[in-house]
Write a structure and sequence with these properties.
By secondary structure, the chain is of the alpha/beta class. The chain has three domains: 90 residues, no CATH class; 138 residues, no CATH class; 190 residues, 3-Layer(aba) Sandwich (Restriction Endonuclease), CATH 3.40.91. The chain is 55% helix and 7% strand. It has a five-stranded mixed β-sheet. α7 packs antiparallel against α9 and α9 runs antiparallel to α14. The radius of gyration is 24 Å and the shape is globular. The protein starts with 6 loop residues before the first helix and ends with a helix.
């Protein structure tokens, strides 16, 4: 039996081949494939766009000349793509990760299957509604050089062009907005689109600071989402891929502010938690918020964002906002997975504590004492691909995470815990608020599906999707989108 080839050897072989060609021709070959018309989504995915853009990232980050030298042909680019595919196969053989962690390695690719949406409004909309002296709002203006409203409007214009499948957006497309936004237009474009030389510097700095292992690069959603557009030599704005543009615009505010670390996450967590509480309250007229619960049990008692009491169960909602770097999704090490998901474990412990407190004989709350088993929804600020509490437990070393006592196991079993992204929780909130689904019934169905490997799922949308024809939009995003459209129509009408 042939021994697997060291992945580092194959990686260096691909890099040597890349260096033979000028980078702009590699970008052109990549974008010709990425923007081509395909009969359906399956064929569009079969070209493995994440590997195509990995080659672009390597070319940009490496020593190949940007605009002089040999141009790559389509056939030569096909050979390079085959080299990456071989590298993926040999990497797996070289170090076979645990099964459940291996399954998660493919989750970043799911973002290519998710439609472009209006998620890019979420972060700036949460910040826009704060006063000008709010710490997060001040950080936003300082780091991005824009007011949240300016960022929303200009991103709306750019995203509409992406939705219309504009591969390259001429720079004059923004001219009608200059009368109203002035220099903010150029400041905005400087945030979302870099020229190739500066992009090369940024990618090299990122690699030096992050030190991403090769294995992670092979499976990650294209890292270029952090720089979703680039400037052509004419100054036009070019997108790598529609989905990379969409995902990048959704996350660009977070990654710009993430440079501030705790200075960003601590104040923004409060905005995020408040938003999750609003979404939870929309799901039930009987919702008990953290503030209401604290008034009864005291400020020091364990709490969650919201308690949704039902006749035969309680549904707890807890928000967790953190930096959540890409390696949370990509690590194939059980101990690293354990260490990087401490926020989620903390949420589960809070759920156990609140569930126990509600059923205590001396509990001051008269509702929430049902005899049924409870549920916990852990809402994270980005998709982590962790699934249920039982699925999370399987990602850890044996014995590292378990129930504190038998009562916790009985009241809130791990299979009744669901970790979901803020996008999934928004969709769930809208569906429940509109009467499309009954929340306890849906959660019980999800538990049953997860008990069968053939029907289990990591993403909660897999359970909700069969009931929803149109995902709809939560009020915050709907109102922000409508206000942006009105402002833009008024501005364009004046020009």
């Amino acid at each position: 039996m042939n021994q697997p080839v060291n992945p580092a050897v194959l990686h260096n072989r691909v890099l040597r081949e890349l260096r033979q060609y000028r980078v702009d021709s590699i970008i052109e070959a990549a974008r010709d494939l990425l923007w081509a018309d395909y009969p359906d989504k399956l064929e569009a995915l079969q070209i493995a766009p994440w590997h195509i853009l990995l080659l672009v990232k390597w070319a940009l980050r490496d020593a190949a000349p940007l605009r002089i030298g040999r141009r790559i042909t389509p056939e030569q680019f096909t050979n390079l793509r085959a080299g990456v595919q071989e590298l993926v196969g040999e990497d797996y053989l070289w170090k076979k990760p645990p099964l459940f962690l291996l399954m998660r390695a493919h989750f970043p690719q799911f973002d290519f299957q998710r439609r472009e949406g209006w998620g890019f409004l979420r972060w700036p909309a949460l910040i826009e509604r704060e006063r000008s002296d709010n710490p997060t709002r001040r950080q936003f203006v300082r780091e991005l050089g824009l007011e949240p409203e300016e960022f929303i409007d200009l991103t709306y214009v750019l995203m509409r062009a992406v939705l219309e499948r504009s591969r390259t957006i001429p720079r004059h497309e923004f001219d009608p907005l200059r009368a109203a936004y002035g220099a903010a237009v150029d400041r905005y474009l400087a945030v979302v689109a870099h020229e190739l030389p500066s992009l090369r510097v940024l990618l090299r700095e990122d690699q030096a600071s992050r030190g991403v292992p090769l294995r992670h690069e092979l499976y990650e959603f294209p890292y270029l989402k952090r720089y979703p557009f680039f400037r052509t030599r004419k100054g036009d704005i070019a997108a790598w891929h529609p989905m990379v543009a969409a995902r990048g615009l959704e996350e660009i505010v977070h990654w710009r502010l993430a440079r501030l670390s705790d200075e960003y996450t601590q104040p923004f967590s409060r905005l995020f938690e408040r938003y999750v509480s609003e979404l939870a309250q929309a799901m039930s007229a009987n919702a008990v918020t953290e503030a209401e619960y604290a008034q009864v049990v005291g400020a020091e008692a364990p709490k969650v964002e919201a308690i949704l009491p039902y006749e035969d169960c309680n549904v707890y909602v807890e928000a967790k906002m953190a930096l959540f770097e890409d390696d949370v999704l990509l690590t194939d090490n059980e101990t690293q997975t354990f260490n990087k998901t401490k926020h989620v474990r903390k949420a589960i412990k809070q759920g156990w504590e609140v569930s126990g407190a509600l059923r205590a004989e001396n509990s001051p709350l008269t509702h929430g004492r049902s005899n049924g088993q409870d549920f916990l929804l852990v809402v994270t600020s980005r998709e982590l691909g962790l699934g249920s509490g039982a699925q999370l437990q399987r990602l850890y070393p044996a014995g590292r995470f378990d129930y504190p006592d038998d009562r916790s196991r009985e009241r809130l079993p791990l299979e009744h815990v669901f970790t979901m992204s803020i996008l999934e929780f928004e969709r769930l909130s809208v569906a429940v608020a509109n009467g499309v689904v009954d929340l306890p019934q849906l959660l019980r169905e999800a538990v049953e599906h997860n008990r069968n490997p053939a029907t289990s799922a990591i993403l909660f949308d897999s359970f909700l999707g069969k009931y929803v024809k149109n995902w709809g939009m939560p009020p915050l995003l709907a109102q922000t989108r409508s206000a942006a459209e009105e402002r833009i129509r008024a501005i364009v009408g004046l020009v």
